[in-house]
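Technical appendix A lists one of the benchmark inputs used to test multi-chain prediction within the project. The record comprises two sequence entries:
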Amino acid sequence: MRADAVEEFTAYVAACSPRMRRTAFLLCGDWQRAEDEVQTALVKLYLSWDRVRARRSLDSYVRTTLVRALIDERRRPWRREQPHAVVPDRPAAEPMGMEDRLTVRAALALVPQRQRAVLVLRFYDDCDVAETARVIGCSEGTVKSQTARGLARLRELLAICEPAPADCPEG
Amino acid sequence: MPDVITMLRAAIDEEPPLGFDAAHVLARAKRARRRRAGIAGLGVAGALALSLSVVLPGVATARGTATIEPAAFTLVEHANGTATLTMNPGVLLKPGALRRDLRRDGIPAQVTVARFCTSRPSPAGFSRVVTGQRSAPDTMTIHPAAMPPGTELSFGYFRLTAGRETGQETVETLINTGSYGCDKTAPIGWPGQGHRVLVHGDIVAGITSR
């Protein structure tokens, strides 16, 4: 690889590593595993660097590698879509405290993996439905249904986990 | 409580320092590229050998070839509760893998790349928790039963460069769980107590233990 390409690569790694690690952490709940998976994704990026460096969205390439590695495909169940009531969310009244953050992370860890990935991509990484579908490798309809189910499950778990993360059911 | 999407967006406000840097990723990536090139070369050689065997039946064909990636470390748990950790200095360390294996054997540990975490003052008892011999500097015996309550091991792994020379340094010490700081500097000659430094490579090879 040419020196300028190496320089570009290392600059990209330095810039993207922190936010990719945060995404990975929300998906797996373990900072060390998150670091390992981010490094593995970045190594794959390097191996394809000459081909993908011109793309506008390197983040998308790394995010796809990362998310697919963290989703356990063997546990993907086929589920029929079922209608369910949507509970409207209230706007935030005040900034979240540490206890709320611990609670939401504990609850998120209990959401099924693919639903968790959809929630993290859409609401933490701000990916739209099409990008989320592309990253996960599913249809946009699946993303929408998984979003609804994931939010519903997260709300249920938050109701159980509140006020303390220790109240969460075992995963 | 705020709505669930707002909570999700604000789920992280604090995080540990990044345990790797771009140079570490680049070094791993270059190794991966070399490994891939090697495997591709074996494939070409195998195909060539096969074609030769068709043309020249008297030429022996290559036997089945497997590529085994060397491990960065080996951890063996013993019946008496101790564990023997042997580092392979020529292989880049995956910190999460070492941490997971240590925890599996009942040894709580922080493993960091390009950073080293310490408590000030260091908890006492490191020399009872980690023992080794100068004749086998890559190998250490860990005695988890000797770890004071509320402590864990801290492993720091650094890649060293000086001009064109390269090397690796691993540093171990005891830290207080939840009360430690991490530093980017490889602590060669660090004057604290209760730690072990192991340096490999072109730069210098040796071990110091306090």
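Chain A has two domains: 3-70, 96-167. The mean pLDDT of chain A is 80. Comparable benchmark entries are summarised in Table A2.
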